[in-house]
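Quarterly update, task 2.4: iron/sulfur cluster-bound model.
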Amino acid sequence: MTPQSTSVYVHIPWCLSRCPYCDFNTYAAREWPEDEYADALVRELAWFTERPPFDDVTLGTVFFGGGTPSLFAPKTIERILNELSRRFRTGPDLEVTLEANPGTVDRERFAGMRAAGVNRLSVGIQSFQPRLLEALGRRHSVDESRAALQAARDGGFDNLSFDLMYATPTQTLDELEADLREATEIAPEHLSAYALIFEPGTQLTRDVQAGKIERATEELEAQMFETVRARLADAGYAPYEISNHARPGREARHNQAYWRGGPYLGIGAGAHSFSPTTAPMQADASDGVRWQNIRDPARYRAATETAGHAIDEHESLTRTQAMGEFCWLALRETRGLSSAEFEARFDASLADAFGHVEELTTEGLLERRHDRLTLSPRGLLIADTIFASFF
Ligand code: SF4
């Protein structure tokens, strides 16, 4: 089976400084080898699009993530998009998202990105409270955030998303309410709201371990999650995934492709890829294969020069892994997990493969609507535990 539509993720690994909670493959820098890095991306694209499964697919979505892709010049983004158009079939409704950070953008840069072919922006706002931006170690000010969102509109973007973060140490419910009020008044088409995660090895996690800061309590985090859902729903943003909310028809199709087990090609340093069918390093991966590029940008570039690609590690999924992944990814979405879709994909019944689904339903953690299972309001609060039960 050849996948008919694919997503491409382009990783730009530089930021002006590193936020203390970040565990992405990013590097603080004042300058970066932009042209040489773009050369490597182009080489990688050439290599992958000459081989199955990416040699015969339609491109559905592109996502420039990072890092801070808005540090790159619009002409570099345009060069990569032109290469993508040359290498893939594309339709008229191609979704092209670019992540941007306040303080790195203005109206002119956004207009340049729009002219280059970017049609959706995701801006890293996090909070409109100066003291919380400081606690998160963000380098931009609230004024720069507001200016960036205005510049996005002035630069021609009618599909705008931004991120908010909650459960930041010492954040109060009133501060969250104020963030949600301002966010909905700005009226983007899409909002993501994430609870702060303390990833192993980050500065913020070390500060917690050293007793310098305290995490929000589980009760407060749960209250904040419910507040986010309620306020955004009241303002017309339906939750279509645990952390993502959109006006009707403005859901992020790129992320939906991930959650629905579609193929995606990640290019750039440390980028991840997935194919549910076949991959250059494994022709008969019937349950799927994923792989990751070399993380270090210089080594990544060097590898693309010698080999054409920079694949570092790959893993073929077992049938059990593939089934589990299908379930927990589907449960992330508000539309939930369809037993008919599971059966069509694996030629096996969901109840036979995961008998505990019945128990989770009886316990009130999952709800059944027709053919679909969804997380109940109680299940949403312990989603990670429920997902882990499918591993
Ligand atoms: S701006 Fe984003 S990618 Fe860069 S360091 Fe901060 S959280 Fe990480």
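Highlight for this quarter: The mean pLDDT is 96.
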